[in-house]
Design brief:
This protein is an alpha/beta fold. The protein has helices at residues 15-18, 49-57, 71-84, 95-106, 121-133, 146-155, 176-186, 233-246, 252-262, 265-284, 303-309, 325-334, 364-370, 386-400, and strands spanning 88-92, 112-116, 137-141, 160-164, 189-193, 209-213, 227-231, 289-293, 316-321, 338-340, 349-352, 376-380. Helices cover 39% and strands 14% of the residues. Helix 10 (265-284) packs parallel to helix 14 (386-400).
Amino acid sequence: MSVGGGSTIVSPMKKNTLVNHPPAVPVPPDNRPLVAPIYQSVKFSFDDTGETLRYLRGDREGFFYSRTANPTLQQLQLLLAQLQGRDGCLLTGSGVATIAASLLSLCKQGDHILAFVESYGPTRYIVQHLLAKYGVAHTLLSIEDLEGIERVLRDRPTRLVVFESPTNPVTKIADIEHLTSHARRTGALTVLDNTFAGFHNHGAYDIDIFLHSLTKYASGHGDVMGGAIIASGELIAAMRKDIVSMGPTLDPHAAFLIQRGMRTYFLRYERQCANALAASLFLKGHLRVKHVFYPGLDTHPQHALARRQMSDFGAVVTLELDGGFEEGARFAEALQLFSISASVGSAESLVMPPQLLAGGEYTPEQRAASRIARGTVRLSVGLEDAEDLIADLGEALEKAFI
């Protein structure tokens, strides 16, 4: 039978054997694909047992089982690590998997974690409930409580400081230098969920571990899930066996789609940030809006800190309406270009009404610190025309208060 290149292979195999051992199509060394192929294979093979053992001992490069390593995943790992300014990366099947896997790997019974009220709900759940079952203690503060942070790190041995910046949903900005300097002084590792800020922000700071939900801005199209743990090669090597053994590995096809999404990452992020600023400036001047939380506004309480720490201000705009649950729901439902949906970072704009941000697990004191009110609405601004988005927001605000 004839295969690529015109050569002919005579096969003695029966057809039911042939379908499981199809002809190989080698690509000449000087004839590279412009886009790397998807290595949608669980298993890889060496020519003999000796070479297989050399790989398993770490004496040679290669691949053996995709839960441990895969060429498609490795290309994405190298890219994301370099963007974040580190040299190690592990990929998982979702953003939450990166949080759970990294915290489980880094902690043991008797350890203490410093976490924050403003953190993503699943992060708080993992710290407060999952890790607590295994004897890991925690303290929960506000990210704005700088004196409390100093006090906890001074008075109690702490394994991890786990935080976000900007926070979800009210876009508070963590003072990263303050956190990292006090953590370093007391021997704690810092873990930053950097999803909202992106791979191009915060890499210059002394952060030990970056977490990213690749479902958001890396993918950019809302059609694939993934997560990344980025750190020094030494730290990733120390975590690798634990995390590989937990089995949260990203699928190669998902890695390929995320890699494809990353080609337009900066173009998308730039447009989304510009749209977010335009939307926030409009909302800031609307009579029905009590507060607008966007780090790019000079009215944001930590605007100066955000300007110092970040190269841009993200694409999440959170507003507090002059009303409550009912007005927030009517506003969200009246929007035509913003879909009511979870997550952020998609090409299309999204909205979360106050009913979906309620945070029922908060104590009254924690709710006050979080600044999530009955009229709080989160917008994830997409790639649409800014004028269209502003017109949509204006019309929805009018309908919300009829």
